[in-house]
Amino acid sequence: MSQVYHANTVCLCFYLLSYILVFLVLIRMTLVHNRNSEFEQLQAELSRAVYRRVQNDASSLPVYSVTIPGLTTNTADQLILGTTFMLVGNAVMTDVLRGAHVVLLGDSGRFYEWIIAMQGSYRRTSSHVSTRVVYAVSGTLLPSCLAGMTPRQDSWFQLEADPWNFNRYPVRSLLHALSFLFYELLDVQVGPYGTSQYSETNPLIVRVV
User: Fold this and answer.
1) Contacts 24+ apart (CB under 8 A), 81-86
2) How does pLDDT run across 125-164, given as a tens digit for each residue?
């Protein structure tokens, strides 16, 4: 009888924990999608902004900086927004901001080399396949830009809703864990401005000249 009671208690705890996790994940997704007004403002500003070419000593990747009026940004935000916009274009930028897993076909690792050389970049553990150590950069507007290398030695990157670095960002790392559960369950990326179907198993491929 005691064994049956124990088994029922374990099952009940498991179901309660499952419901709590699902509830927390739903709350996390709601917070991400509630940035719609900021997302629309950012898209509008990116489409009409002036992009300034800056020096890049890390690789031959053309690097650009952009300032977004009305939104708080730091240097990392300005460089990542400017460079990715010039790489992928206005039409694709929407998916990038929603967290698409982007493969830069033909870039030969130039984007990756640039990210790891950026001030404030740090090594990251990641579930995504990379032939080299994965690195990330955290901004103010863009919480995390993750970059790695494909087996073909091209760069891949994705913008994430939260960083994964307990030493620097303990609370936001917990939020990242919830986004990871969402990704594992549905194979959907969680970016700073929504979600994307372009995951590692279905990447957004951008050809780089």
Assistant:
1) 81/46, 81/141, 81/142, 82/51, 82/52, 83/111, 83/114, 84/157, 85/46, 85/51, 86/51, 86/62
2) 888 999 999 999 999 999 999 999 999 999 999 999 888 8
pTM score of the predicted model: 0.81
**E-assigned strands of the chain?**
52-54, 63-65, 102-105, 122-124, 134-137, 144-149, 155-160, 189-191, 194-196, 204-207
75: tokens are 């240097």
d(CA 56, CA 177): 33
* 3-class DSSP state of 198: coil
Phi-psi group of 70: left, alpha or beta (phi > 0 → left; psi -120 to 50 → alpha; rest → beta):
left
**Integer angstrom CA distances of residue 179 from 1, 41, 46, 195:** 40, 24, 26, 10
Q: What is the pLDDT of residue 32?
A: 52
Give the bridge partners for 64, in sequence order: 53
The residues with which 206 forms a beta bridge, in sequence order, are 104
**Contact predicate 205/105, CB 8 Å:** yes
**Whole-number Å distance between alpha carbons of 168 and 123:** 12
Instruction: Count Cβ atoms below 10 Å from residue 81 Cβ, excluding itself.
Output: 30
